[in-house]
Amino acid sequence: MRLRSVVCASAALAAFTVPADSLRAAPPLAQRVVAAAVLPSRAQWISHEIVSGESLGEIADRYAVAVGSILRWNQLDPRRPQFWVGEQLKVLTQLPDRVRTKYKYIVRPDDTWESVAERFHVEMEALQRFWNPNEAQLQPGHQLVVWVEPEVTPEPLPEPSFGIESIKPGAVSIGYPDSGRLSNGAQIPINPNLYTLRNLDHAYGSTHAIGVLQQSIATFRLRTGFDREVILWDMSTKTGGHFGPHRSHRSGRDIDIALPLKPGYIPGMMNGVVDWEATWHLIRTFVETGEVRYVFLSRARQAALYQAAKGCGATPEELDRFVQYPRTTKVGIVRHSPGHEGHLHVRFTCGADEESCYEVGGMTP
User: Fold this and answer.
1) Contacts of 322 (CB under 8 A, 6+ apart)
2) Residues 335, 301: contact at Cβ < 8 Å?
3) Structure confidence by residue, pLDDT tens digits, 266-295
4) With contact defined as beta carbons under 8 Å apart, do 207 and 169 qualify?
5) How far apart are the C-alpha atoms of 136 and 134, rounded to whole Å?
6) Which of 45, 44, 47, 70 is nearest to 57 (CA)?
7) Does residue 297 sit in the same domain as residue 191?
8) CATH code, domain with 129
9) What is the pLDDT of residues 155-212, one digit of tens each?
10) CA 296 to CA 277: how far, in whole Å?
11) Mutual orientation of helices 207-224 and 276-288 as an angle, nearest 10°?
């Protein structure tokens, strides 16, 4: 198994104070059009996000307007216009469909700069030099920024099969996580392509929870190319109930998962070797299912997770929703719980067929 690290590219906004034509990128994809001296009444205002490497002349060509008009609409000094990568420019145009979409692409094992550029119909120089300058070479799992033209719809990528294993039906969670039990418990199927089970006697849960668990890890691996171990610790015993040293884990919908490590490290080694970018992707994949109520992680470890999420492009709204840090109140999905330094504690919701399963209560792992 090859050793890789999941890394998220992030670019700070860079200020430019340059002559109007001096910022150059790859030649524009659209044919150059003659700038209209007078726009018809049906022209619309749009917002154009400035992309690294493009010039005001290229922006004017894209929307069939004059450079002088862009300067006037945005109150830029025509002798020394100042603007930023990421800034929104106002443009009055007949061609609103020329607005590009910022796409975040996860690198696949067989990708090259040429193949990614061809897939999205963009110039390789723009893709590599301007949009992803920190990527010296492509690494599976890394995240690239691609500015996609409106008429381009990439064909879906083939999705590798991770061999989702069948799960015993009819296993249901009863009661609360810290005072319930497990009826007809199902064992997490052995599936080394997805995860490693630490203890089969502690690997029982509800059919619903195990299904979400298995699918989420498969999706995480597919998105990121993460190919190192995902180690599953304790879930529940076969019949649930009290399961020391845990306060919860009683009804088959709580599971402990070891924090993903960087390449070259083995389980049990934590200091400075956690792959926090991979951890963020894993948590995000779980939460996006809509079937995870909480993820418990100590506050000290949340700080590193928070910074990794920002580096991966998480918005302020996503950070508020996902992570309790830096707040101290009980908010967010990822919440503080002492003793959770080396692993995540994921709590799944009740399944649709679990009539005696209760969400409220059981806040303490």
Assistant:
1) 283, 284, 287, 309, 314, 332, 333, 334
2) no
3) 665 555 589 999 999 999 999 988 999 999
4) yes
5) 6
6) 70
7) yes
8) 3.10.350.10
9) 655 555 677 889 999 999 999 999 999 999 999 999 999 999 999 999 999 999 999 9
10) 17
11) 130
Helices (H), ranges, the chain = 56-63, 67-73, 113-120, 124-125, 207-224, 276-288, 299-311, 316-322
Q: Which of 219, 227, 184 is nearest to 351 (CA)?
A: 184
Angle at 83 between CA 81 and CA 88, to 5 degrees: 125
The closest of 277, 280, 309 to 5, measured between CA atoms, is 277
Residue among 200, 238, 196, 235 at smallest CA distance from 217: 196
- Which domain-ending residue is among 70, 98, 126? 98
Angstrom distance (rounded) from CA 308 to CA 214: 24
Q: Is the distance from CB of 80 to CB of 17 less than 8 angstroms?
A: yes
Amino acid at 74: N
CATH number of the domain enclosing 54:
3.10.350
Classify each residue of 293-308 as buried b or exposed e, where b means 16 or more C-beta atoms within 10 Å of its C-beta.
bbbbbbbebbebbbeb
Q: Report whether 162 contacts 345 (CB < 8 A).
A: no
Q: Kindly report whether the peptide bond that precedes residue 326 is cis, defined as omega within 30 degrees of 0.
A: yes
Tell me 126's DSSP state.
I
What span, in angstroms and rounded, lies between the C-alpha atoms of 147 and 136?
19
Q: To 10 degrees, what angle do helices 299-311 and 276-288 make?
A: 90
Same domain assignment for residues 87 and 208: no
Burial label, 227 (beta-carbon count in 10 A; 0-12, 13-18, 19+): middle
Q: Which positions of the chain have pLDDT values less than 50?
A: 1-4, 9-40, 362-363
- Does 245 sit behind a cis peptide bond, omega within 30 degrees of 0 on the bond before it? yes
Position 191, amino acid: N
